[in-house]
């Protein structure tokens, strides 16, 4: 994974687009805007991981696209988030089982499970705190499997912007 060929460079370009979204997502004060930027980021990460051949991360990224769209429209859906969160937790666990190639296959799913809980919270502050822990899971997978420079940068920006935003905004409005 993460070879030196042209496909790797294209994958890194998509990773950099996802990275650009990382600079914006956790600076949002409104949950809706946070979720729409997350949807864009998920599409970029899916493409990135598919090009790298990192199947566990690609599977969870595909589910993340669905999750972001559902969460962003949860006020318009028949099912409340309290129904969707357990559904996505089960889907991420299933994706880990279906793409299993060793113990590290669990980390993309664990990261996404944490994110499902975080993005389901009404307060962006709580989402940002959980994002830091989800990033740790992504870091473990990237070190062991994907070896993507774009992921390292993305994690750096996610954690940095989350911490900065948490320090900047002591408490935020709910919606």
Explain this structure to me?
The protein has 175 residues and is an all-alpha fold. The protein has one domain. 77% of the residues lie in helices and 0% in strands. It contains seven helices and no strands. Helix 1 runs parallel beside helix 7. It is globular. The mean pLDDT is 87.
Tell me the Rg in angstroms.
Answer: 15 Å
Number of domains: 1
Sheet/helix structural class: mainly alpha
Number of strands: 0
Provide the residue-averaged pLDDT: 87
Give the secondary structure arrangement, pairings included:
Blueprint: H1 6-25, H2 31-52, H3 55-72, H4 81-98, H5 106-119, H6 124-146, H7 149-168
Helix pairs in contact: 1-2, 1-7, 2-3, 3-4, 3-5, 4-5, 5-6, 6-7
Structural descriptors:
175 residues, single chain, mainly alpha
Quickly describe the structure.
The protein is built from seven helices and no strands. The chain is mainly alpha-helical and about 180 residues long.
